[in-house]
Automatic annotation (TrEMBL):
<feature type="signal peptide">
    <location>
        <begin position="1"/>
        <end position="24"/>
    </location>
</feature>
<dbReference type="Pfam" id="PF03734">
    <property type="entry name" value="YkuD"/>
</dbReference>
<keyword id="KW-0732">Signal</keyword>
<comment type="pathway">
    <text>Cell wall biogenesis; peptidoglycan biosynthesis.</text>
</comment>
<keyword id="KW-0961">Cell wall biogenesis/degradation</keyword>
<feature type="active site" description="Proton donor/acceptor">
    <location>
        <position position="98"/>
    </location>
</feature>
<feature type="domain" description="L,D-TPase catalytic">
    <location>
        <begin position="27"/>
        <end position="142"/>
    </location>
</feature>
<comment type="similarity">
    <text>Belongs to the YkuD family.</text>
</comment>
<keyword id="KW-0573">Peptidoglycan synthesis</keyword>
<keyword id="KW-0808">Transferase</keyword>
<protein>
    <submittedName>
        <fullName>L,D-transpeptidase</fullName>
    </submittedName>
</protein>
<dbReference type="InterPro" id="IPR038063">
    <property type="entry name" value="Transpep_catalytic_dom"/>
</dbReference>
<dbReference type="InterPro" id="IPR050979">
    <property type="entry name" value="LD-transpeptidase"/>
</dbReference>
<dbReference type="InterPro" id="IPR005490">
    <property type="entry name" value="LD_TPept_cat_dom"/>
</dbReference>
<feature type="active site" description="Nucleophile">
    <location>
        <position position="114"/>
    </location>
</feature>
<keyword id="KW-0133">Cell shape</keyword>
């Protein structure tokens, strides 16, 4: 009986080691450029998977690991004709994750390099980063 209990506990412990890349941060937003998708992990658990739009041909979305450095609920791009960027989370130079009204292009490259989300999803991510803090949030972008 004791041995069975130990096996169950060991199995449970192994199952709790479920997300190796999310262990250090409370919130991890993983953007996969090849699938045009974002997974959001909260305290080690995958909570959301969303379609995104990243850089179209002729532009680039930076690849790497970043932390947010600035956030705005309402923001308008000075560089691109005051384009609305709701729930903007800036993570590298002028690049941000933000909402878009161009919903039909989510899931394929369409931006100048930012990561576009459905506005409700951008609001959810913005709220998570606000709740857990920028220093406890990691943005991981892979090809």
């Amino acid at each position: 009986m004791k041995r069975i209990l130990l096996i169950i506990l060991a199995t449970l412990a192994l199952s709790l080691a479920h997300v190796p890349h999310a262990r250090a941060q409370a919130v991890v937003a993983h953007i996969d450029l090849s699938t045009q998708s974002m997974e959001v992990w909260v305290e080690g658990w995958r909570r959301y998977t969303w379609p995104v739009s990243t850089a179209r041909k002729g532009y680039r979305t930076p690849v790497g690991t970043f932390h947010p450095y600035r956030m705005h609920r309402r923001y308008f791009s000075r560089k691109y004709d005051n384009a609305p960027m709701p729930y903007a989370v800036f993570f590298h130079k002028g690049y941000a994750i933000h909402g878009t009204n161009d919903l039909r292009r989510l899931g394929r490259p369409a931006s100048h390099g930012c990561i576009r989300l459905h506005p409700e999803n951008a609001k959810t991510l913005f709220s998570l980063v606000s709740e857990f803090g920028r220093s406890n949030t990691e943005i991981v972008i892979t090809r």
